[in-house]
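Notebook B, p. 112. Complex prediction, attempt 2.
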Amino acid sequence: MSIIETVDAEGSEAVSLHQRILSDISEKILSGAWPPGHRIPFEHELTAEYNCSRMTVNKALSQLAKAGLIERRRRSGSFVRRPQSQAAVLEIHDIRIEVEALGLAYRYQRLERLKRRSNAEDRTLLELAASGPVLALKGLHFAGQRPFAHEQRLINLAAVAEAGEEEFLDIAPGPWLIGRVPWSQAEHRIRAIAASDHIADVLDIEAGAPCLVVERRTWSAEHPVTHVRFIYPAESHTLVARFTPSQG
Amino acid sequence: MSIIETVDAEGSEAVSLHQRILSDISEKILSGAWPPGHRIPFEHELTAEYNCSRMTVNKALSQLAKAGLIERRRRSGSFVRRPQSQAAVLEIHDIRIEVEALGLAYRYQRLERLKRRSNAEDRTLLELAASGPVLALKGLHFAGQRPFAHEQRLINLAAVAEAGEEEFLDIAPGPWLIGRVPWSQAEHRIRAIAASDHIADVLDIEAGAPCLVVERRTWSAEHPVTHVRFIYPAESHTLVARFTPSQG
DNA sequence: CCTCTCAATATGTATATACATAATCACCAT
DNA sequence: ATGGTGATTATGTATATACATATTGAGAGG
Protein backbone atom coordinates (compact mmCIF):
# COMPACT_ATOMS: atom_id res chain seq x y z
CA MET A 1 0.00 0.00 0.00
CA SER A 2 2.84 2.33 0.69
CA ILE A 3 5.19 4.02 -1.68
CA ILE A 4 8.24 2.00 -2.57
CA GLU A 5 10.80 3.45 -0.24
CA THR A 6 12.44 0.10 0.38
CA VAL A 7 15.05 0.00 -2.30
CA ASP A 8 15.53 -3.77 -2.17
CA ALA A 9 18.42 -3.59 0.25
CA GLU A 10 19.33 -7.25 -0.13
CA GLY A 11 19.32 -9.26 -3.34
CA SER A 12 18.61 -6.25 -5.42
CA GLU A 13 18.75 -7.42 -9.00
CA ALA A 14 17.76 -5.36 -11.95
CA VAL A 15 14.60 -7.30 -12.72
CA SER A 16 11.63 -5.47 -14.09
CA LEU A 17 8.44 -5.52 -12.08
CA HIS A 18 6.75 -7.05 -15.08
CA GLN A 19 9.17 -9.97 -14.99
CA ARG A 20 8.77 -10.39 -11.27
CA ILE A 21 5.01 -10.62 -11.37
CA LEU A 22 5.31 -13.06 -14.21
CA SER A 23 7.76 -15.37 -12.53
CA ASP A 24 6.03 -15.15 -9.15
CA ILE A 25 2.75 -16.31 -10.60
CA SER A 26 4.13 -19.01 -12.86
CA GLU A 27 6.12 -20.34 -9.94
CA LYS A 28 2.94 -20.59 -7.89
CA ILE A 29 1.24 -22.43 -10.72
CA LEU A 30 4.11 -24.75 -11.55
CA SER A 31 4.74 -25.62 -7.93
CA GLY A 32 1.11 -26.57 -7.54
CA ALA A 33 0.47 -23.99 -4.85
CA TRP A 34 -2.22 -22.68 -7.17
CA PRO A 35 -3.79 -25.79 -8.69
CA PRO A 36 -5.81 -25.85 -11.92
CA GLY A 37 -9.04 -23.98 -11.50
CA HIS A 38 -7.66 -21.76 -8.78
CA ARG A 39 -8.62 -18.15 -9.14
CA ILE A 40 -5.69 -15.81 -9.44
CA PRO A 41 -5.98 -12.55 -7.50
CA PHE A 42 -7.81 -9.87 -9.42
CA GLU A 43 -5.80 -7.29 -11.24
CA HIS A 44 -6.66 -4.67 -8.65
CA GLU A 45 -5.47 -6.97 -5.87
CA LEU A 46 -2.17 -7.59 -7.59
CA THR A 47 -1.96 -3.88 -8.22
CA ALA A 48 -2.08 -3.42 -4.46
CA GLU A 49 0.23 -6.34 -3.71
CA TYR A 50 2.97 -5.19 -6.03
CA ASN A 51 2.18 -1.55 -5.57
CA CYS A 52 2.06 -0.85 -9.25
CA SER A 53 -0.43 0.19 -11.88
CA ARG A 54 -3.07 -2.04 -13.37
CA MET A 55 -1.45 -1.75 -16.79
CA THR A 56 1.65 -3.51 -15.52
CA VAL A 57 -0.33 -6.29 -13.92
CA ASN A 58 -2.52 -6.56 -16.98
CA LYS A 59 0.45 -6.92 -19.29
CA ALA A 60 1.88 -9.73 -17.18
CA LEU A 61 -1.41 -11.59 -16.92
CA SER A 62 -2.09 -11.20 -20.62
CA GLN A 63 1.26 -12.75 -21.31
CA LEU A 64 0.54 -15.67 -19.01
CA ALA A 65 -2.75 -16.15 -20.80
CA LYS A 66 -1.02 -16.18 -24.15
CA ALA A 67 1.47 -18.70 -22.81
CA GLY A 68 -1.46 -20.91 -21.89
CA LEU A 69 -0.84 -21.03 -18.16
CA ILE A 70 -3.97 -19.17 -17.18
CA GLU A 71 -7.35 -18.43 -18.61
CA ARG A 72 -9.00 -15.04 -18.29
CA ARG A 73 -12.72 -14.48 -18.05
CA ARG A 74 -14.31 -11.09 -17.98
CA ARG A 75 -16.22 -10.26 -14.88
CA SER A 76 -15.02 -13.53 -13.30
CA GLY A 77 -11.30 -13.21 -13.05
CA SER A 78 -8.29 -15.25 -14.13
CA PHE A 79 -7.91 -18.95 -13.46
CA VAL A 80 -5.14 -21.51 -13.60
CA ARG A 81 -5.74 -23.60 -16.67
CA ARG A 82 -6.64 -27.22 -16.49
CA PRO A 83 -4.29 -29.00 -18.85
CA GLN A 84 -1.46 -29.21 -16.36
CA SER A 85 0.48 -30.57 -19.23
CA GLN A 86 4.15 -31.02 -19.35
CA ALA A 87 5.86 -28.98 -21.94
CA ALA A 88 9.03 -30.18 -23.46
CA VAL A 89 11.39 -28.58 -25.81
CA LEU A 90 11.51 -30.92 -28.69
CA GLU A 91 14.31 -30.37 -31.02
CA ILE A 92 13.83 -31.72 -34.43
CA HIS A 93 17.11 -31.68 -36.11
CA ASP A 94 17.80 -31.12 -39.70
CA ILE A 95 17.83 -34.56 -41.25
CA ARG A 96 21.13 -33.88 -42.93
CA ILE A 97 22.77 -33.11 -39.61
CA GLU A 98 21.20 -36.13 -38.05
CA VAL A 99 22.45 -38.42 -40.79
CA GLU A 100 25.92 -36.93 -40.80
CA ALA A 101 26.08 -37.30 -37.04
CA LEU A 102 25.76 -41.02 -37.67
CA GLY A 103 28.85 -40.85 -39.84
CA LEU A 104 26.88 -41.56 -42.99
CA ALA A 105 26.73 -39.72 -46.27
CA TYR A 106 23.59 -37.63 -46.69
CA ARG A 107 21.71 -37.23 -49.91
CA TYR A 108 18.30 -35.88 -50.84
CA GLN A 109 16.48 -36.99 -53.92
CA ARG A 110 13.29 -35.62 -55.35
CA LEU A 111 10.61 -38.10 -56.30
CA GLU A 112 7.86 -35.78 -57.41
CA ARG A 113 7.17 -32.10 -57.93
CA LEU A 114 3.85 -30.57 -58.79
CA LYS A 115 2.71 -26.97 -58.94
CA ARG A 116 -1.06 -26.69 -58.73
CA ARG A 117 -3.99 -24.87 -57.23
CA SER A 118 -4.73 -26.16 -53.76
CA ASN A 119 -7.38 -28.82 -53.60
CA ALA A 120 -9.57 -29.54 -50.62
CA GLU A 121 -7.05 -31.85 -48.98
CA ASP A 122 -4.26 -29.33 -49.40
CA ARG A 123 -6.36 -26.69 -47.74
CA THR A 124 -7.06 -28.97 -44.83
CA LEU A 125 -3.42 -29.80 -44.37
CA LEU A 126 -2.29 -26.20 -44.63
CA GLU A 127 -5.34 -24.83 -42.85
CA LEU A 128 -5.91 -22.48 -45.73
CA ALA A 129 -9.17 -20.61 -46.04
CA ALA A 130 -9.14 -19.91 -49.75
CA SER A 131 -7.73 -21.70 -52.74
CA GLY A 132 -4.35 -20.67 -54.07
CA PRO A 133 -1.17 -21.95 -55.66
CA VAL A 134 0.75 -24.65 -53.82
CA LEU A 135 3.83 -26.71 -54.50
CA ALA A 136 3.53 -30.41 -53.75
CA LEU A 137 6.78 -32.29 -53.26
CA LYS A 138 7.83 -35.81 -52.49
CA GLY A 139 11.38 -36.87 -51.79
CA LEU A 140 13.71 -39.27 -50.08
CA HIS A 141 16.43 -38.62 -47.56
CA PHE A 142 19.27 -41.11 -47.77
CA ALA A 143 21.76 -42.18 -45.15
CA GLY A 144 24.55 -43.78 -47.11
CA GLN A 145 22.89 -46.10 -49.61
CA ARG A 146 19.79 -46.69 -47.53
CA PRO A 147 16.62 -44.58 -47.49
CA PHE A 148 16.38 -42.82 -44.16
CA ALA A 149 13.11 -40.94 -44.39
CA HIS A 150 10.36 -40.20 -46.84
CA GLU A 151 9.15 -36.63 -47.10
CA GLN A 152 5.87 -35.38 -48.46
CA ARG A 153 5.48 -31.63 -48.45
CA LEU A 154 3.11 -28.86 -49.37
CA ILE A 155 4.32 -25.29 -49.69
CA ASN A 156 1.91 -22.39 -49.73
CA LEU A 157 3.13 -20.36 -52.69
CA ALA A 158 1.03 -17.42 -51.61
CA ALA A 159 3.34 -17.20 -48.63
CA VAL A 160 6.62 -18.20 -50.29
CA ALA A 161 6.40 -17.30 -53.92
CA GLU A 162 10.09 -17.96 -54.71
CA ALA A 163 9.63 -21.62 -53.85
CA GLY A 164 7.69 -22.00 -57.07
CA GLU A 165 10.87 -21.31 -59.05
CA GLU A 166 12.89 -23.95 -57.23
CA GLU A 167 13.28 -27.43 -58.61
CA PHE A 168 14.28 -29.10 -55.30
CA LEU A 169 15.96 -31.81 -57.32
CA ASP A 170 18.65 -32.60 -54.81
CA ILE A 171 18.29 -29.91 -52.20
CA ALA A 172 15.74 -30.62 -49.51
CA PRO A 173 12.94 -28.07 -49.16
CA GLY A 174 13.27 -27.98 -45.36
CA PRO A 175 16.63 -26.23 -45.08
CA TRP A 176 15.77 -24.12 -48.10
CA LEU A 177 12.67 -22.79 -46.37
CA ILE A 178 14.34 -22.35 -43.01
CA GLY A 179 16.94 -20.17 -44.61
CA ARG A 180 14.34 -17.98 -46.22
CA VAL A 181 11.18 -17.79 -44.22
CA PRO A 182 11.08 -16.69 -40.61
CA TRP A 183 8.46 -18.77 -38.90
CA SER A 184 6.62 -17.92 -35.76
CA GLN A 185 4.61 -21.03 -35.02
CA ALA A 186 4.74 -24.70 -35.69
CA GLU A 187 2.63 -27.68 -34.81
CA HIS A 188 3.82 -31.25 -34.78
CA ARG A 189 1.86 -34.43 -34.83
CA ILE A 190 3.70 -37.59 -34.04
CA ARG A 191 2.32 -41.05 -34.44
CA ALA A 192 3.10 -44.58 -35.47
CA ILE A 193 1.80 -46.27 -38.60
CA ALA A 194 2.28 -49.50 -40.46
CA ALA A 195 4.11 -49.01 -43.72
CA SER A 196 1.85 -49.03 -46.76
CA ASP A 197 2.97 -51.00 -49.79
CA HIS A 198 4.19 -47.89 -51.54
CA ILE A 199 6.06 -46.51 -48.53
CA ALA A 200 7.54 -49.93 -47.84
CA ASP A 201 8.75 -49.99 -51.41
CA VAL A 202 10.50 -46.63 -51.45
CA LEU A 203 11.93 -47.04 -47.95
CA ASP A 204 13.04 -50.56 -48.74
CA ILE A 205 11.34 -52.13 -45.74
CA GLU A 206 8.62 -54.71 -45.36
CA ALA A 207 5.00 -53.76 -45.84
CA GLY A 208 3.29 -53.40 -42.48
CA ALA A 209 6.51 -52.61 -40.64
CA PRO A 210 6.11 -49.92 -37.96
CA CYS A 211 7.09 -46.39 -38.94
CA LEU A 212 7.31 -43.13 -37.09
CA VAL A 213 5.39 -40.30 -38.69
CA VAL A 214 6.16 -36.69 -37.90
CA GLU A 215 3.91 -34.08 -39.41
CA ARG A 216 4.74 -30.44 -39.11
CA ARG A 217 2.68 -27.43 -39.98
CA THR A 218 4.45 -24.11 -39.95
CA TRP A 219 3.08 -20.60 -39.79
CA SER A 220 4.80 -17.35 -40.24
CA ALA A 221 2.79 -14.76 -38.39
CA GLU A 222 -0.66 -16.21 -39.01
CA HIS A 223 0.10 -17.30 -42.55
CA PRO A 224 0.39 -21.01 -43.23
CA VAL A 225 3.72 -21.70 -44.87
CA THR A 226 4.18 -25.40 -45.22
CA HIS A 227 2.97 -28.81 -44.20
CA VAL A 228 5.36 -31.72 -44.22
CA ARG A 229 5.05 -35.39 -43.36
CA PHE A 230 8.17 -37.38 -42.58
CA ILE A 231 7.98 -41.13 -42.44
CA TYR A 232 10.86 -42.94 -40.76
CA PRO A 233 11.36 -46.69 -40.56
CA ALA A 234 11.06 -47.54 -36.87
CA GLU A 235 14.64 -48.76 -36.50
CA SER A 236 16.16 -45.68 -37.99
CA HIS A 237 14.67 -43.07 -35.80
CA THR A 238 14.10 -41.88 -32.27
CA LEU A 239 13.00 -38.38 -31.45
CA VAL A 240 14.67 -36.93 -28.41
CA ALA A 241 13.17 -34.08 -26.45
CA ARG A 242 14.75 -32.35 -23.54
CA PHE A 243 12.99 -30.06 -21.20
CA THR A 244 13.62 -27.59 -18.43
CA PRO A 245 10.43 -26.09 -17.06
CA SER A 246 11.55 -22.49 -16.96
CA GLN A 247 9.00 -19.93 -17.83
CA GLY A 248 10.18 -16.74 -19.37
CA MET B 1 2.39 6.30 -46.41
CA SER B 2 -0.55 8.54 -45.72
CA ILE B 3 -2.56 8.75 -42.61
CA ILE B 4 -5.25 6.14 -42.33
CA GLU B 5 -8.35 8.21 -42.03
CA THR B 6 -10.37 5.79 -44.06
CA VAL B 7 -12.37 3.99 -41.43
CA ASP B 8 -12.23 0.66 -43.22
CA ALA B 9 -15.41 1.22 -45.11
CA GLU B 10 -15.35 -2.22 -46.67
CA GLY B 11 -14.31 -5.32 -44.78
CA SER B 12 -14.57 -3.50 -41.53
CA GLU B 13 -14.14 -6.18 -38.93
CA ALA B 14 -13.77 -5.52 -35.25
CA VAL B 15 -10.01 -5.95 -35.28
CA SER B 16 -8.00 -4.09 -32.72
CA LEU B 17 -5.42 -1.63 -33.93
CA HIS B 18 -2.85 -3.68 -32.11
CA GLN B 19 -3.77 -6.72 -34.20
CA ARG B 20 -3.71 -4.75 -37.40
CA ILE B 21 -0.25 -3.34 -36.86
CA LEU B 22 0.90 -6.81 -35.98
CA SER B 23 -0.49 -8.49 -39.06
CA ASP B 24 0.56 -5.66 -41.37
CA ILE B 25 4.16 -5.91 -40.32
CA SER B 26 4.37 -9.68 -40.25
CA GLU B 27 2.82 -9.74 -43.69
CA LYS B 28 5.56 -7.45 -44.96
CA ILE B 29 8.18 -9.71 -43.43
CA LEU B 30 6.55 -12.84 -44.66
CA SER B 31 6.09 -11.63 -48.20
CA GLY B 32 9.74 -10.80 -48.38
CA ALA B 33 9.03 -7.12 -48.91
CA TRP B 34 11.08 -6.59 -45.77
CA PRO B 35 13.89 -9.14 -45.95
CA PRO B 36 16.03 -10.20 -42.98
CA GLY B 37 18.12 -7.29 -41.81
CA HIS B 38 15.66 -4.71 -43.07
CA ARG B 39 14.97 -1.88 -40.66
CA ILE B 40 11.37 -1.55 -39.62
CA PRO B 41 9.99 1.98 -39.40
CA PHE B 42 10.69 3.62 -36.06
CA GLU B 43 8.00 3.62 -33.46
CA HIS B 44 7.32 7.30 -34.00
CA GLU B 45 6.93 6.70 -37.73
CA LEU B 46 4.43 3.92 -37.18
CA THR B 47 2.72 6.12 -34.64
CA ALA B 48 2.20 8.65 -37.42
CA GLU B 49 1.28 6.04 -40.01
CA TYR B 50 -1.38 4.39 -37.92
CA ASN B 51 -2.32 7.57 -36.15
CA CYS B 52 -2.08 6.03 -32.71
CA SER B 53 0.03 6.33 -29.60
CA ARG B 54 3.54 5.00 -29.22
CA MET B 55 2.39 2.59 -26.52
CA THR B 56 0.21 0.76 -29.00
CA VAL B 57 2.97 0.51 -31.56
CA ASN B 58 5.43 -0.47 -28.86
CA LYS B 59 3.22 -3.27 -27.65
CA ALA B 60 2.86 -4.67 -31.14
CA LEU B 61 6.58 -4.49 -31.86
CA SER B 62 7.44 -6.01 -28.50
CA GLN B 63 5.17 -8.89 -29.32
CA LEU B 64 6.82 -9.41 -32.69
CA ALA B 65 10.16 -9.38 -30.94
CA LYS B 66 8.96 -11.96 -28.45
CA ALA B 67 7.66 -14.06 -31.32
CA GLY B 68 11.13 -13.93 -32.81
CA LEU B 69 10.20 -12.19 -36.04
CA ILE B 70 12.13 -9.04 -35.35
CA GLU B 71 15.01 -7.88 -33.24
CA ARG B 72 15.04 -4.58 -31.42
CA ARG B 73 18.12 -2.47 -30.79
CA ARG B 74 18.12 0.69 -28.78
CA ARG B 75 19.07 3.78 -30.61
CA SER B 76 19.21 1.81 -33.86
CA GLY B 77 15.69 0.60 -34.41
CA SER B 78 13.98 -2.72 -35.07
CA PHE B 79 15.16 -5.19 -37.67
CA VAL B 80 13.77 -8.25 -39.38
CA ARG B 81 15.43 -11.26 -37.87
CA ARG B 82 17.13 -14.06 -39.66
CA PRO B 83 15.18 -17.33 -39.47
CA GLN B 84 15.76 -19.28 -36.30
CA SER B 85 16.62 -22.82 -35.43
CA GLN B 86 13.88 -25.23 -34.74
CA ALA B 87 12.64 -26.18 -31.34
CA ALA B 88 9.19 -27.16 -30.37
CA VAL B 89 7.18 -27.16 -27.23
CA LEU B 90 5.80 -30.59 -26.90
CA GLU B 91 2.88 -30.99 -24.65
CA ILE B 92 2.45 -34.37 -23.18
CA HIS B 93 -0.82 -34.51 -21.41
CA ASP B 94 -1.79 -36.50 -18.43
CA ILE B 95 -3.27 -39.70 -19.79
CA ARG B 96 -6.34 -39.34 -17.63
CA ILE B 97 -7.07 -35.93 -19.06
CA GLU B 98 -6.45 -37.17 -22.54
CA VAL B 99 -8.84 -40.07 -22.12
CA GLU B 100 -11.52 -37.98 -20.50
CA ALA B 101 -11.21 -35.44 -23.27
CA LEU B 102 -12.31 -38.22 -25.57
CA GLY B 103 -15.44 -38.61 -23.51
CA LEU B 104 -14.37 -42.01 -22.23
CA ALA B 105 -14.10 -43.34 -18.70
CA TYR B 106 -10.55 -43.48 -17.41
CA ARG B 107 -9.16 -46.24 -15.26
CA TYR B 108 -5.69 -47.31 -14.20
CA GLN B 109 -4.89 -50.84 -13.23
CA ARG B 110 -1.68 -52.16 -11.78
CA LEU B 111 -0.20 -55.23 -13.38
CA GLU B 112 2.96 -55.63 -11.40
CA ARG B 113 4.80 -54.05 -8.48
CA LEU B 114 8.27 -54.92 -7.32
CA LYS B 115 10.55 -53.28 -4.76
CA ARG B 116 14.17 -54.23 -5.31
CA ARG B 117 17.74 -53.06 -5.45
CA SER B 118 18.52 -51.55 -8.82
CA ASN B 119 20.09 -53.92 -11.29
CA ALA B 120 22.33 -52.93 -14.17
CA GLU B 121 19.45 -52.25 -16.53
CA ASP B 122 17.66 -50.11 -13.98
CA ARG B 123 20.78 -48.03 -13.50
CA THR B 124 21.07 -47.50 -17.23
CA LEU B 125 17.48 -46.41 -17.55
CA LEU B 126 17.63 -44.09 -14.57
CA GLU B 127 21.19 -43.00 -15.24
CA LEU B 128 22.08 -43.92 -11.70
CA ALA B 129 25.71 -44.16 -10.65
CA ALA B 130 25.36 -46.42 -7.63
CA SER B 131 22.99 -49.19 -6.73
CA GLY B 132 20.01 -48.41 -4.53
CA PRO B 133 16.37 -49.22 -3.89
CA VAL B 134 13.94 -48.84 -6.80
CA LEU B 135 10.28 -49.50 -7.34
CA ALA B 136 9.40 -51.26 -10.60
CA LEU B 137 5.82 -50.90 -11.78
CA LYS B 138 3.76 -52.07 -14.69
CA GLY B 139 0.22 -50.98 -15.35
CA LEU B 140 -2.50 -50.36 -17.90
CA HIS B 141 -4.41 -47.20 -18.68
CA PHE B 142 -7.93 -47.86 -19.89
CA ALA B 143 -10.20 -45.72 -22.03
CA GLY B 144 -13.63 -47.15 -21.41
CA GLN B 145 -13.27 -50.89 -21.70
CA ARG B 146 -10.29 -50.81 -24.01
CA PRO B 147 -6.63 -50.65 -23.01
CA PHE B 148 -5.28 -47.25 -24.00
CA ALA B 149 -1.65 -47.44 -23.00
CA HIS B 150 0.79 -49.72 -21.27
CA GLU B 151 3.08 -48.19 -18.69
CA GLN B 152 6.36 -49.55 -17.40
CA ARG B 153 8.01 -47.45 -14.74
CA LEU B 154 11.00 -47.27 -12.48
CA ILE B 155 11.03 -44.99 -9.46
CA ASN B 156 14.25 -44.11 -7.69
CA LEU B 157 13.36 -44.64 -4.04
CA ALA B 158 16.48 -42.80 -2.95
CA ALA B 159 14.87 -39.69 -4.41
CA VAL B 160 11.23 -40.40 -3.51
CA ALA B 161 11.15 -42.61 -0.44
CA GLU B 162 7.38 -42.30 0.14
CA ALA B 163 6.71 -44.01 -3.17
CA GLY B 164 7.88 -47.24 -1.58
CA GLU B 165 4.85 -47.19 0.72
CA GLU B 166 2.38 -46.73 -2.10
CA GLU B 167 0.61 -49.67 -3.68
CA PHE B 168 -0.36 -47.91 -6.94
CA LEU B 169 -3.17 -50.41 -7.30
CA ASP B 170 -5.53 -48.11 -9.13
CA ILE B 171 -3.86 -44.74 -8.98
CA ALA B 172 -1.33 -44.09 -11.67
CA PRO B 173 2.17 -43.26 -10.50
CA GLY B 174 2.49 -40.35 -12.94
CA PRO B 175 0.04 -37.92 -11.34
CA TRP B 176 1.08 -39.18 -7.90
CA LEU B 177 4.67 -38.19 -8.58
CA ILE B 178 3.81 -34.93 -10.29
CA GLY B 179 1.85 -33.88 -7.24
CA ARG B 180 4.71 -34.68 -4.89
CA VAL B 181 8.03 -34.22 -6.57
CA PRO B 182 9.00 -30.96 -8.15
CA TRP B 183 10.94 -31.89 -11.23
CA SER B 184 13.43 -29.71 -12.92
CA GLN B 185 14.31 -31.63 -16.05
CA ALA B 186 12.89 -34.25 -18.29
CA GLU B 187 13.97 -36.07 -21.39
CA HIS B 188 11.70 -37.77 -23.84
CA ARG B 189 12.43 -40.38 -26.43
CA ILE B 190 9.78 -41.10 -28.98
CA ARG B 191 9.83 -43.94 -31.45
CA ALA B 192 7.76 -46.56 -33.18
CA ILE B 193 7.91 -50.28 -32.53
CA ALA B 194 6.08 -53.41 -33.54
CA ALA B 195 4.05 -54.87 -30.71
CA SER B 196 5.68 -57.85 -29.04
CA ASP B 197 3.51 -60.85 -28.25
CA HIS B 198 3.19 -59.82 -24.64
CA ILE B 199 2.37 -56.18 -25.36
CA ALA B 200 -0.07 -57.23 -28.06
CA ASP B 201 -1.76 -59.44 -25.53
CA VAL B 202 -2.24 -56.85 -22.80
CA LEU B 203 -3.17 -54.06 -25.22
CA ASP B 204 -5.52 -56.37 -27.07
CA ILE B 205 -4.02 -55.74 -30.48
CA GLU B 206 -2.33 -57.94 -33.02
CA ALA B 207 1.27 -58.93 -32.58
CA GLY B 208 3.51 -56.88 -34.83
CA ALA B 209 1.06 -53.98 -35.01
CA PRO B 210 2.74 -50.57 -34.93
CA CYS B 211 2.90 -48.82 -31.57
CA LEU B 212 4.08 -45.45 -30.41
CA VAL B 213 6.59 -45.54 -27.58
CA VAL B 214 7.22 -42.55 -25.36
CA GLU B 215 9.97 -42.84 -22.79
CA ARG B 216 10.46 -40.15 -20.21
CA ARG B 217 13.26 -39.68 -17.75
CA THR B 218 12.77 -37.10 -15.04
CA TRP B 219 15.22 -35.38 -12.76
CA SER B 220 14.62 -33.28 -9.71
CA ALA B 221 17.62 -31.06 -9.15
CA GLU B 222 20.21 -33.45 -10.57
CA HIS B 223 18.68 -36.51 -8.92
CA PRO B 224 17.08 -39.05 -11.22
CA VAL B 225 13.49 -39.53 -10.14
CA THR B 226 11.78 -41.84 -12.54
CA HIS B 227 11.92 -43.50 -15.90
CA VAL B 228 8.72 -44.44 -17.63
CA ARG B 229 7.89 -46.10 -20.92
CA PHE B 230 4.44 -45.68 -22.39
CA ILE B 231 3.34 -47.89 -25.25
CA TYR B 232 0.31 -46.78 -27.25
CA PRO B 233 -1.40 -48.71 -30.01
CA ALA B 234 -0.88 -46.66 -33.16
CA GLU B 235 -4.56 -45.96 -33.75
CA SER B 236 -5.16 -44.66 -30.27
CA HIS B 237 -2.54 -42.03 -30.10
CA THR B 238 -1.08 -38.97 -31.73
CA LEU B 239 1.25 -36.66 -29.91
CA VAL B 240 0.63 -33.04 -30.65
CA ALA B 241 3.31 -30.46 -30.16
CA ARG B 242 2.76 -26.78 -30.54
CA PHE B 243 5.46 -24.28 -30.71
CA THR B 244 6.04 -20.60 -30.55
CA PRO B 245 9.71 -19.72 -30.69
CA SER B 246 11.09 -17.95 -27.63
CA GLN B 247 8.92 -17.02 -24.74
CA GLY B 248 8.69 -13.86 -22.77
C1' DC C 1 -41.81 -18.65 -11.05
C1' DC C 2 -39.76 -17.18 -15.01
C1' DT C 3 -37.83 -13.78 -17.96
C1' DC C 4 -36.07 -9.36 -19.05
C1' DT C 5 -33.42 -5.46 -18.04
C1' DC C 6 -29.98 -2.90 -15.97
C1' DA C 7 -26.22 -2.02 -12.99
C1' DA C 8 -21.92 -3.73 -11.26
C1' DT C 9 -17.60 -5.76 -12.20
C1' DA C 10 -13.25 -7.53 -14.31
C1' DT C 11 -10.94 -7.61 -18.19
C1' DG C 12 -9.55 -5.45 -23.05
C1' DT C 13 -7.67 -1.75 -25.42
C1' DA C 14 -5.99 2.67 -26.12
C1' DT C 15 -4.02 7.32 -24.82
C1' DA C 16 -0.74 10.79 -22.99
C1' DT C 17 3.01 11.18 -20.21
C1' DA C 18 7.37 10.44 -17.78
C1' DC C 19 11.75 8.93 -16.92
C1' DA C 20 15.44 5.19 -17.55
C1' DT C 21 18.86 3.07 -20.44
C1' DA C 22 21.75 1.74 -24.18
C1' DA C 23 23.93 2.96 -28.36
C1' DT C 24 25.59 6.21 -31.43
C1' DC C 25 27.36 10.51 -33.14
C1' DA C 26 29.42 14.95 -33.13
C1' DC C 27 32.51 17.76 -31.07
C1' DC C 28 36.26 19.30 -28.38
C1' DA C 29 40.66 19.02 -26.12
C1' DT C 30 44.82 16.93 -26.06
C1' DA D 1 44.86 11.82 -35.37
C1' DT D 2 42.95 10.34 -30.96
C1' DG D 3 40.44 9.71 -27.08
C1' DG D 4 37.11 11.24 -23.98
C1' DT D 5 32.59 13.58 -23.21
C1' DG D 6 28.16 14.81 -23.56
C1' DA D 7 24.03 15.33 -26.45
C1' DT D 8 20.85 12.81 -29.16
C1' DT D 9 18.00 9.12 -30.21
C1' DA D 10 15.14 4.88 -30.03
C1' DT D 11 13.67 1.66 -27.22
C1' DG D 12 12.22 -0.15 -22.22
C1' DT D 13 9.28 0.31 -18.52
C1' DA D 14 5.93 2.30 -15.71
C1' DT D 15 1.97 5.44 -14.43
C1' DA D 16 -2.71 7.47 -14.47
C1' DT D 17 -6.63 7.67 -17.05
C1' DA D 18 -10.51 6.62 -20.09
C1' DC D 19 -13.81 4.11 -22.27
C1' DA D 20 -15.32 -0.46 -24.43
C1' DT D 21 -17.05 -5.05 -23.72
C1' DA D 22 -18.43 -9.38 -21.85
C1' DT D 23 -20.52 -11.56 -18.02
C1' DT D 24 -22.71 -11.97 -13.83
C1' DG D 25 -26.18 -11.01 -10.43
C1' DA D 26 -29.98 -8.69 -8.53
C1' DG D 27 -34.28 -6.69 -8.95
C1' DA D 28 -38.52 -5.38 -11.72
C1' DG D 29 -42.36 -6.94 -14.23
C1' DG D 30 -45.14 -10.31 -16.36
